[in-house]
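Methods — Computational structure assignment.
A single polypeptide chain was analysed. Its primary sequence is given first, followed by the predicted tertiary structure written as structure tokens.
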Amino acid sequence: MKDNWYRQDQMFAPKRRVNNKLSWKIPHSIGYFYSNKMDRTVEYESLGERIFYYFLELDPSTIRYYVQPIEVGVPYIDDYGEQQTWTHIPDVLVFRRGEKPTLYQIKETNEFSKKKQLIDKACLNFAKKNGWEYKVVYPKSLPKEVIHNINFLIGFVREKDAYVLWIEEVLEKLRYFNSVSIQDVAISFKTKTDPLFILPVIYHLIASGSIYVNINEKISPAAIIQPVKGKVLFSNYFIVEDC
């Protein structure tokens, strides 16, 4: 499997660099973060891309994802009636457990244009030839509470040494309580440590998919948590356009 991912890492390396020449004119137009799943820096060109890539980091079923992975030829007819082709680079190719690889285009809004129609057709054909799926997503259309929670939880994805000592005991207490607030679990540790030390452990367990919380409500110490029991945090949230 390691050799397979090495091959894919080479094959789907970014086909162009994120352009930051105008970033001083357009706030938040570009950025990067360290991906725990890819074990390297991932760049993004919009807030929508950042939200979606954060989601992939939090999604337990996502194994790997490749930003700007391929070049797709988009055929069109020019003003002289001649067949021409331009090169389009889709946003991300995602590998999930038990699913076909999916090629995603990340958009701000669902607005029709002839150019978008041509791109979607070319990408869909390319995906089908490779045994993949092709979808268009609109991350900025998510409820504001969900976006807030994605941005909040991404800071707790990486397991820290300080968490390890408490993880099993937090999960054991949660199995006992079954449904309880984050702050109540933290307070239950007050005879052993400062409850404030337990809060990031709980947030890490939520971010890693080990604890369930209602993602429609802003995550805070007052939020109610439960054992996972097959629940998925962000399932069925993205507005997806199957092309």
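Note: The chain has two domains: 2-141, 156-227.
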